[in-house]
């Protein structure tokens, strides 16, 4: 299941960079590329809670198959059609709206695959191993897009979407796990303090990562493989941090400690434009990212009923995607009006605000030390017939 979902989500690590490189090459503007990325991310953000909730009503396989089909068509359109900026934004939004909710599906399945004591370590392992996507995907898509062509880069994204999505959809676990239909109104679950915190901090953390992506591409220009390598190093730091610290019990201050590392590392990126310096500072920042994501997954799962899990992760994903949109757009504009430092400044501010939020609202974080992170089972009244 881990291998299937990592493959299905591999295009997530390629699509933003592929679109950024393609639109920048076609329009000559990082701001235009940032707007298209923003449109894509906003589409994903709007669809996240809806498609996740639909899985409880229609079944995971039906929703995943439908969204995958539309998403592939939209990516092919971005690659092959002669478009102006509004056209790129429309197709980017369609691709975002139809992004298969793989992450919400797999994190709903996880509690059914392992016992309660293994769930938090599994979330940590998942958060760490997903960095493989961010290590390999940027290098691969940068190599293809810069050495072969940006059209070919987007076509590669479409091919992996089909292959990985089919593997995940056909996995036996996807057919066996049935998500109960949620009894609450859409959006009610996000009002729970841990879910709301996970959504807000996810917005800020992924916003910082998206700004870093734009900054790295702008630092080394369109044709440099160094951009992909530096982004890969960023993810190596996150992978190392997740594997090294994933076993640490999650208390109320866990998020703040992890975000201190991220904020300090990102602040140091602005000192100088040098591949080795950027690589080192981004490794430092990356050490806190996977452990922070593991905290987000665990507090979300532990605070909801099983029928609400997919929607809760959908909202958390929406927060992250809106953050990606904001981070990309802000960083793109700052690069256009200034230089590469603007993108890293944006990243540092996003992470710093996340740190402040995690400190101010520390009492809202559940203490999971020695506690089960599984969602609460759904219960309902039983009708008893008098004998």
TrEMBL record:
Name of this protein: Major Facilitator Superfamily protein
Membrane-spanning intervals of the chain: 63-81, 154-174, 195-220, 226-247, 259-277, 283-300, 312-335, 341-362
Pfam families, sorted: MFS_1
UniProt keyword terms in alphabetical order: Membrane, Transmembrane, Transmembrane helix
Organism this protein belongs to: Microbacterium hydrocarbonoxydans
InterPro entries given in the database record: MFS (IPR011701), MFS_trans_sf (IPR036259)
MF-aspect GO terms: transmembrane transporter activity
SUPFAM superfamilies: MFS general substrate transporter
């Amino acid at each position: 299941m881990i291998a299937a979902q990592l493959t299905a989500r591999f295009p997530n690590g390629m699509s933003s960079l592929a679109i950024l490189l393609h639109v920048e090459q076609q329009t000559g503007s990082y701001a235009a590329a940032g707007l298209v990325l923003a449109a894509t991310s906003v589409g994903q953000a709007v669809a996240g809670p809806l498609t996740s909730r639909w899985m409880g009503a229609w079944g995971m396989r039906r929703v995943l198959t439908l969204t995958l089909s539309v998403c592939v068509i939209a990516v092919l359109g971005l690659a092959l059609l002669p478009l102006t900026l509004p056209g790129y934004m429309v197709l980017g939004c369609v691709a975002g709206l139809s992004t298969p909710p793989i992450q919400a599906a797999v994190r709903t399945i996880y509690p059914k695959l392992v016992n309660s004591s293994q769930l938090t370590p599994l979330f940590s392992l998942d958060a760490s191993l997903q960095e493989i996507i961010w290590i390999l995907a940027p290098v691969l898509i940068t190599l293809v897009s810069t050495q072969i062509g940006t059209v070919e880069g987007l076509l590669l994204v479409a091919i992996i979407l089909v292959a990985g999505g089919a593997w995940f959809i056909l996995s036996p676990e996807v057919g066996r796990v049935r998500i109960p239909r949620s009894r609450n109104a859409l959006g009610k679950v996000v009002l729970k303090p841990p879910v709301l915190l996970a959504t807000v901090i996810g917005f800020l953390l992924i916003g910082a990562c998206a700004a870093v992506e734009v900054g790295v591409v702008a630092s080394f220009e369109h044709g440099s493989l160094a951009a992909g390598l530096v982004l890969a190093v960023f993810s190596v730091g996150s992978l190392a941090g997740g594997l090294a610290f994933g076993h640490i019990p999650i208390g109320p201050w866990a998020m703040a400690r992890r975000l201190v590392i991220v904020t300090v590392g990102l602040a140091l990126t602005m000192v100088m434009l040098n591949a080795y310096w950027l690589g080192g500072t981004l490794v430092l920042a990356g050490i806190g990212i996977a452990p922070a994501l593991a905290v987000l997954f665990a507090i979300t799962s532990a605070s909801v009923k099983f029928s609400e899990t997919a929607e809760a992760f959908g909202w958390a994903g929406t927060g992250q995607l809106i953050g990606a949109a904001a981070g990309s757009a802000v960083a793109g504009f700052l690069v256009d009006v200034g230089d590469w430092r603007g993108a890293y400044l944006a990243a540092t501010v996003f992470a710093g605000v996340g740190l402040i939020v995690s400190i101010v609202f520390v009492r809202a974080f559940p203490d999971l030390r020695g506690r089960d992170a599984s969602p609460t089972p759904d219960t309902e009244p039983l009708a008893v017939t008098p004998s």
